[in-house]
Amino acid sequence: MNSLLRLSAVMGGAILLTLAAGWLTDLLLRRADARHPETPLWNLLRRCGPSVRVLLLTAVLSGTYRQTGWLPLREHEAAVGRILTLVLIGASAWLVVRVTSAVVESTYARYASGTREPSRLRRVRTQVTLVMRIVTAVVGVIAAAAMLLTFPAFRAVGTSLLASAGILGIVAGVAAQSTLGNLFAGFQIAFGDMVRIGDTVVVGGEWGVVEEVTLTFLAVRTWDERRITMPVSYFTGRPFENWSRGGIQMTGTVFLHCDHTAPVALMREKLKEILDGCGAWDGRGWDLAVTDTTPTTILVRAIVTAKDPDDLWTARCAVREQLVAWLAEKHPYALPRVTTSTAVPAPGDGPAQEVFREVRAGRTHQG
Q: At a CB cut-off of 8 Å and minimum separation 6, what does 289 contact?
């Protein structure tokens, strides 16, 4: 009975101490956030509360559970100690990741508030995302290794494997060549500024916006809301189009096949009228010219500009639709036509001339 009371006192005291320390920490962070509203770090650190409480509770229990004198705890003292150690390692890794995330997000938020260039923001955002993934992976691996080393069997195995670490490293490198290639490609993308989150790219004949970048793969959201996932090594080993490099403004073309009698000058005036009423046109430039001819048509090219790929698509569609509708209504003769005429026979008289005269007279042959 005495041991149960002591156990209850130890558990209750540990919980109360943890709650009091957590409340005090949160109070200090709230006051710091109120005094420095320009810095989001203090408010972000409040999200570390659960990991701090678990860490404190586990640390207090690790130092006091032997004092309870409870028989089941004495019988399984080694197992209880190992469990508390594992929880302590996990809580410490959790806290490190949360604190690092708060610091990185705070730094990015302060940088974003003072920068007005979207390209720089996308670059820093991509780097921040990959840095956090790297930190999380490294902390997770270290925590897992520390947990395994708490078991004597794994510690002995680890000691014996040190002698063959070089061979294992070579074997692992060969087996994970593709994974390691993607890993280093992820570093190259993050800090080489090749492609960033939010960039508009064309890969495999599909254009879309880079939605997610990890250490091993990259996700592109297409205009029809599909997701194309590919290894990051694709972007370091193959050429691709990045429409957001050097500014996202773009120039696009609209091609129309017209009859040779099409009023090109009037079409040029109509194009300017259409663009003046199109909100997607950014006003930087426009043009209309005949770029090619065929025996039956001419190829008219209209050039339009826009501030980004989405507006360029809208402007091109508007120009194409309104120009075709205007030609059909005002100048239908300018639309492509298939011209047919009666075949002229070769000079002379003979069977071919007789057939031609019969066809012209409307007669047909049965046979």
A: 264, 300, 301
